[in-house]
Structures are given as structure tokens and as C-alpha cells.
Design brief:
Elements (H helix, E strand, L loop, with lengths): L11 E2 L4 H4 L13 E9 L6 E2 L22 E7 L8 E7 L5 E7 L9 E6 L1 E7 L10 E4 L4 E2 L2 E2 L5 E5 L10 E3 L4 E14 L6 E9 L5 E10 L1 E13 L3 E7 L6 E13 L1
Antiparallel strand pairs: 1-19, 2-19, 3-18, 4-7, 4-9, 5-6, 5-8, 9-12, 10-11, 13-18, 14-17, 14-19, 15-16, 15-18
């Protein structure tokens, strides 16, 4: 009788944060960032529930508290609020009509960064990062599914799919559309809450999940005081086609800032 065989577990793919991808630019088809990184600034006690992404900041104009997740094919556009942001190269992690992850390269206009540029098509954009050598964005970079801009700023806030604040070079947005054929495993979440003036405050944070073909539900809830909390998650698992995003609300005072980092891995289905 043949000896029994031990079967190896499903292979986990280690992922590289986009900053390291620059070394192998153009060879990134199987690489994804290994954490969701999002922040939102200057949230006040009378504000509605806001998604944790930079485009919900009080100092952004126009501003959208919550991202609209598109479901149909559209064009992708990029523009900057600063005319000097010319020829900036950005790599975008997108979702196509089959729900698959596709990387697309965008480049801002060569003569005036405020001029919108059509750079591809797809359904949604998970994140973007500047991948050109030694580049700094002097203005806000907007990635939209509408070509309507005024001086580099989108006319319709709900068209914004990703946003890069001045000098950040990447999009701080705690959200992801899980590609089809993948399962996401969230291993740890780090939450940071602070008042802009340094005074203690509190807030409620939700992890929201829309499973493939379902509706948004609150998968986890945390009540925070000012400070940093590291939360082991016992491997929160969501299937391909799911949409995951974090929101904050019930802020105790004015000008409250929050940052979220969720470490994850993908497993092939």
C-alpha cells in the first residue's frame, strides 16, 4: 500500500507595496500591494459618516464623503490641479469588466497638468501610485470616469475613483474591490485616531463589505479613543467580487483625523 502523502496548503502570495515595484516597472502583472492604506482629515462632530479616503478631507474641493463604486465599463481620466504636473507617470491597479485586476499606466498631459487625459477603460480603480523616476505631484491628482474637469478639478465629485494629495505620490484610500479568482485574507488592522489640535477625541469605525451580488453590511465595528490600536483579525476572509471599505462617524469633536492600515494576503481560488 503506498505511503500517504501530505498535501500542501493553498499557496499564499506575498505582495509588494507599490514603492518597491518601481525597481521592476513593467513587470507587475502579478504583484499587488499588501495593505489597504487610507486616511481622512478634519472630520467634525456634525459630519456624516465618511469613507476613509483622502477625497473626504475637509480641505479638498470638491469633496465626496463616500466613493461611488461603478459597475459598468467607462473611460478613465487623470488630471492635476496644478499646471506644472506635466508628464507624471502613474501606475493604476484597476478592475476590468470580468472583475479581474489589470494594471494600467497613466501619464498627465505633457504641456499642462490640468488638462484631462484619457488613459484607458475599466470598471473601477483600487489604488494608484506614481511610478516615474524622481517625480513629485505639486497639485491634487484626480482619477475619474468622467472627462469633465475645470482647471484640473473634476466637475462631478462622484466620478472620482482615486485621489492623490499634494506630495503623497499615491492614493490613501482604505478600500478595495477584490479581484475575481482571488480570496482576500485580512490578517491585521491598525487604526490611528487624533485631534488636529492634539486634544483627545473619539469615533466609531466600520469595516463595510459588499459580497459579490449582495448588499453592503457592517462586518466589524470599533469604538476608538485617541491613539493607535493594533487589531489581530483572526484572518477575516472575503471572496472575489467583494467590495471592502472603511468608514468613520460619530466623531466627538472638531478636526478629527484618522488613519487605517489593513494588512492582507490574496489566495488564488
Amino acid at each position: 500500500m503506498p505511503a500517504s502523502k501530505n498535501h500542501a496548503p493553498a499557496k499564499l502570495f506575498d505582495h509588494v507595496y507599490p514603492a518597491n515595484v518601481d525597481v521592476e516597472l513593467g513587470k507587475i502583472n502579478n504583484i499587488e500591494n499588501d495593505y489597504l492604506y487610507g486616511r481622512v482629515l478634519q472630520v467634525d462632530s456634525n459630519d456624516p459618516e465618511r469613507m476613509v479616503w483622502s477625497f473626504a478631507d475637509d480641505d479638498i474641493s470638491p469633496r465626496s464623503d463616500n466613493k461611488t463604486f461603478p459597475t459598468t465599463l467607462s473611460n478613465f481620466y487623470v488630471a492635476s490641479s496644478n499646471a506644472a504636473d506635466t508628464g507624471i507617470v502613474i501606475t493604476c491597479s484597476t478592475i476590468n469588466t470580468a472583475g479581474e485586476r489589470v494594471f494600467i499606466t497613466a501619464t498627465t498631459d505633457a504641456s499642462d497638468g490640468r488638462t484631462p487625459v484619457l488613459f484607458g477603460t475599466g470598471v473601477d480603480i483600487n489604488f494608484v501610485f506614481m511610478s516615474g523616476a524622481d517625480q513629485v505631484n505639486l497639485g491634487e491628482l484626480y482619477f475619474t470616469n468622467s472627462g469633465a474637469f475645470t482647471l484640473g478639478r473634476p466637475d462631478t465629485p462622484s466620478s472620482v475613483l482615486a485621489h492623490v494629495p499634494i506630495g503623497y505620490g499615491c492614493s490613501p484610500q482604505a478600500l478595495v474591490a477584490v479581484p475575481e479568482g482571488k480570496t482576500i485574507i485580512i490578517e491585521e488592522i491598525v487604526l490611528t485616531l487624533a485631534r488636529a489640535s492634539g486634544i483627545a477625541g473619539s469615533a466609531v469605525v466600520h469595516l463595510n463589505v459588499k459580497r459579490d451580488g449582495g448588499s453592503f453590511v457592517v462586518a466589524r465595528e470599533w469604538h476608538l479613543q485617541s491613539g493607535t490600536i493594533v487589531l489581530p483579525c483572526n484572518n477575516l476572509t472575503f471572496a472575489g467580487g467583494s467590495i471592502i471599505h472603511f468608514t468613520m462617524f460619530d466623531v466627538s469633536d472638531m478636526n478629527t483625523n484618522i488613519g487605517i492600515e489593513a494588512h492582507f494576503k490574496y489566495v488564488d481560488n
